Amino acid sequence: MKYRNELKFLKDIGCDKLPHKNGSLYDHLVATAKLLIRFKRSDDEVICGLFHSIYGTTHYKHSKKLNITRNQIRSLVGNTAEELIHKFCSLGYSREEVLEEDKFDKTSLEQLRWVAYCNEIEQSTKYKPWTKKLEQLLKVDMN
């Protein structure tokens, strides 16, 4: 099974015990990654989806209790995926930074947009204006 080590790690560190909007953090991370898989995104993006708030974000602070390091994550997922995870966790409160063309290199920008989009649609019942903008930028086909 793909991502077995990553899923085990998330459970081992207690992500399934941390609360999140519609269940546990683990549930949300897995659901976000599944959306990325559905959209046929790269392994690095799927792994970022699995870990997108592992360091904590401006929205989600509970991850700080996990007391994990970047080196631990890097040794599990590799440099490229860890860099993407770190960039996502560093996004500002609104995450609208993913709409800015000059904030990140072109590849990282598209990857972060996909993770932000899947993260948002996984947990929201209504679209924020920037989510709709992401759909247009990413040319998302919901059919």
What's the story with the biggest beta sheet? Answer: 2 strands, antiparallel
User: Could you list the spans in which at least 5 consecutive residues all have pLDDT below 50?
Assistant: none
| Measured distance between first and last alpha carbons | 27 Å
Q: Roughly what is the average pLDDT, rounded to an integer?
A: 89
| Residues in β-strands, percent | under 5%
**Count of beta strands:** 2
Query: What is the radius of gyration computed over CA atoms, rounded to a whole number of angstroms?
Result: 14 Å
Structural class of the helices, strands and pairings?
A: mainly alpha
Order of helices and strands: HEEHHHHHH
What would you note in describing this structure?
There is one protein chain. By secondary structure, the protein is mostly helical. It has one domain. It is built from 7 helices and 2 strands. A two-stranded antiparallel ribbon has the order 1-2. A hairpin with a 2-residue loop joins strand 1 and strand 2. Helix 3 (43-51) packs across helix 6 (106-123), helix 4 crosses helix 5 and helix 6 (106-123) packs across helix 7. The longest helix is centred in the C-terminal third of the chain and has 18 residues, at 106-123. The model has no long low-confidence stretch (mean pLDDT 89).
